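User: Predict the structure for this protein chain, please.
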Amino acid sequence: MKYYPHIALLLIILGASGANAMKFSAYNGDVYFDHRMHRLIYDCKSCHEGPPQHFELDHESGHKLCIGCHRKEGKGPSRHCSDCHKTS
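Assistant: Here is the predicted structure, written as structure tokens:
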């Protein structure tokens, strides 16, 4: 019972953040990153060096930043390519 408010908050965050997803193109399927959801949870300095600005992720930096953080935090996908890479 005590987890219901947390689940409701998560659903609100996820539902409200759909328009803020960024697409990173990759040969094995595009990766969609929900910046708004991450921004609500983490400080900008967690990902951005210096003032926040738009940046592109390549294979190496994307894996280091995304998978590294997901494994460290124990949250989000980090084991199977298809967890993040989506083909149409």
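The beta strands are 21-24, 30-34, 85-86.
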